[in-house]
């Protein structure tokens, strides 16, 4: 394995801390930017091209029936392999918005189509969860697990703002570790359950 430095050709101002790299249908995508030129890329998702040590970004379009996907920084991102006729996709949960808000939403990102010139179009849908639902957070992890033919998603860790009852003018923007809970999502029915591990309470739960 070797590491090679890259020179950003048309995107140096777009590479902000906390972005995510995804690979969908063989294409590398960069997601989670702040301050991109809205006219050239209203979605904030870019295709990444590497050539001769240079990196270029190309705006990616979304289908007309997609929901709005904010440019989230430090979200939990998890890849879903194709199964039961469903396409390759990504789950995206939480993250910080450009307005410094912390999201609690869960999104499903898939490929919608390829144009005649191989231009990629994405589709984004917000997924609703019921039960013990994880609150807003960032810096956490999310992974897929399989058992007895069932597929589920495990979410753990992260940081969030202090509880509303504890926030004052002085600490309004202070963040704390989320409670030591492990959340399990049933992707077929959208059910969420949580297990509390008090033994983890002394460790930092963010990444």
From TrEMBL:
GO terms for biological process: chromatin organization; V(D)J recombination. InterPro entries: Gal_Oxase/kelch_b-propeller, Kelch-typ_b-propeller, RAG2. Pfam families: RAG2. One of its GO terms (molecular function) is zinc ion binding. Coiled coil: none annotated. GO terms for cellular component: DNA recombinase complex; nucleus. Signal peptide: none annotated. This is V(D)J recombination activating protein 2. It comes from Dissostichus eleginoides (Patagonian toothfish). The lineage of its organism: Eukaryota, Metazoa, Chordata, Craniata, Vertebrata.
